[in-house]
Amino acid sequence: MNSAFDYRTLPVMTVCLRRFSSVFLALALAASVIFPAQKVSAQDFVGLVRVAANNAGGSVRDFYAQRDFVPAWSGDRIGALADFIRELNNHGLHPEIFQFSAWDQQWRNLSADPQTRAQVEVGTTQLALFVVQSAAYGLVDPSSSHGKWKEIPRRVGALGYLQAAMKQSPNRMARYLLDHVPPQDKRYRDMLGALAKYRKIEEFGGWRPLSNPGKIVSVGMPYEQIGLLRSRLQAEGDLPSFTGQYRSNTLDQTTSDAIKSFQFRHGIEPDGAIGPQTLGELNVSVRDRVQALVINIDRLRWMPRNYEKEEHVEVNIAESALRLFRNGKQVTVMPVIVGVKGKHQTPVFHGNIDYLVFRPYWNIPLSIAKKELFPKAIQNPEGYMSRNNYQIVKGYFDSPDAVFPNTPENLSKVEAGRLLMRQSSGPNNSLGLVKFIFPNDSSVYLHDTPDHSLFERADRDFSHGCVRVSRPDELAFHLLQRNGQWGIDRVRQSMHDEQNPNSRENLKQSMPVFLNYWTSTVMNDGRVRFDQDIYSHDLAMKQKFGIAQ
Q1: Geometric angle at alpha carbon 531, from 525 and 532, rounded to 5°
Q2: What would you report as the CA-atom Rg of the chain, rounded to the nearest whole angstrom?
Q3: Which residues contact 225 (CB under 8 A, 6 or more apart)?
Q4: What CATH number was assigned to the domain covering residues 363-424?
Q5: Which of 35, 205, 297, 496 can bridge 92 by disulfide, Cβ–Cβ 3.0-4.6 Å?
Q6: Going by C-beta distance under 8 Å and a sequence separation of 6 or more, which residues neighbour residue 221?
């Protein structure tokens, strides 16, 4: 493909005009720039475009109906579209995703058949709309990968962007599309910068794989490829560049600290040693890192425009971290625990936090009560149930005096689905001392936990699907700001108020919450974090991009 091809040189056809009105002259001129060879009247060609556009339907039909089916794609316009498609390679959208070479050949070698040329005209519009949609809101439809994802309303759709671009002069059209169609927020720009950086590393040959030492190498121990290891750590910024020479082949403290930095960026327990998991991540090729950036850039396109500027809570499932944004700034970040991989995976979706519950009951899902708790409880009903503060009830919100006795008969009714189980409120409740509710059909929410030791782990997928929050008092404080008179002391008092179990506090303004799955992100210092693909969502994304191995 010759990227320097000038579409303006497309041959001009002779048009037979039946009438010489200004309208038909415009039609003729529009058609004559792109379509060579065979004579056809402008009026007849418009009719062919009309048929092709109506057959395409949807936005394509709307595009042509609003211009009375006048052909849109002159040589200059095609050149602008081609430039836009090529530039999208810098956004992780390779031109061949859009079969650019095939389209390029069609544009250069136009058929003499008017009907075929009308199909190319309308097909070019279909291509343009698809390219704009992909650059603006994602090549991959999020709902095709995550069934719980709700469509986000868009102020401007692909048709609106294309119509606005067509109002620009041909030499401004590509620039207009690049300036307005892709997301404009800093996070997106940072990811594009990271993509360019890693592609440059790949262009220079990437990095060489490190040999397996056959054992865990800690500080003070020898490693034969220590120089190669240091170069590898320097490539991504974990180890500062050093112009001198290291004389020792032992793992020194500076290099060990750089390994800790690398481990943190890859979701590994940061022990500073060369172990199997660390070596495996060090030997992931730069090509794989580029592909990870490409698919995660596409995930950013799923988000609302001005995403970072609007107040919201964000959970990155892959990172097991929660962030709260307000006025375009990150207010807080904290570790969270997410659903167990392959078993109780936390879904990717978004909603609105409507209310909090202090000292909540845990309304135990019937599936958990039947499969996990019943087999243990039936062996010693009173002891097991009392020890864990479990109660047998007819309805989750029944009063304490409506609790059934902990008998084998009543447990059997739970197992049969005729009664329910809940856990009474208190510090040992599985939900901790506060939960944050955003209604959804998966019964997923944010909550405290009585066991905070797991937050120290790098791998934090331990829940049944809900998200456990490490600093629930801080999150509650931020969420209740608009309610007024909610300082951190009042939040903590409500969490420990034994006289008011299961106490609900509605938010005066709902807080948007996004449960995302981003396996690569740019950190505040500019380095890139690559988290484990714990739910194998990356593989599905790569398949949709045509880059799966």
Answers
A1: 170
A2: 30
A3: 210, 211
A4: 3.30.1490
A5: 297
A6: 250, 251
Instruction: Report the distance separating Cα 447 and Cα 439, nearest Å.
Output: 14
Q: What is the CATH number of domain 310-360+427-518?
A: 2.40.440.10
In this predicted model, what pLDDT tens digit does every residue of 4-58 receive, in sequence order? 566 655 543 223 323 333 333 333 334 444 444 456 788 899 999 999 999 999 9
Distance CA 368, CA 549 (A): 37
CB-CB contact of 166 with 173 (8 Å): yes
The answer to whether 403 and 318 have CB atoms below 8 angstroms apart is: no
Catalytic residue from among 91, 266, 312, 447: 447
Q: Which ranges of 139-266 would DSSP assign to H, the alpha helix?
A: 142-145, 158-166, 170-180, 186-203, 226-235, 253-265
Return the H-helix or E-strand segment holding 380.
Answer: none
For residue range 230-284, list pLDDT tens digits in order. Answer: 999 999 999 988 655 667 889 999 999 999 999 999 999 999 999 999 999 999 9
CA torsion sign, 200 to 97 to 283 to 461? positive
Question: Could you give the CA distance from residue 453 to residue 448 in angstroms, rounded to a whole number?
Answer: 12
Answer for the pair 342, 534: CB distance below 8 angstroms, yes or no.
no
- Catalytic residue, chosen from 466, 478, 496, 537, is 466
The boundaries of every CATH 2.40.440.10 domain in the chain are 310-360+427-518
* Angle (nearest 5°) at CA 268 between 267 and 273: 150
458-470: pLDDT as tens digits: 999 999 999 999 9
447 tagged catalytic: yes
Q: What Cα–Cα distance (Å) separates residue 501 from each residue in 21, 248, 423, 497?
A: 81, 62, 12, 7
Measured CA angle at 486 (ends 389, 361), to 5 deg = 15
Residue 466 annotated in active site:
yes
Contact 404, 392 (CB under 8 A): yes
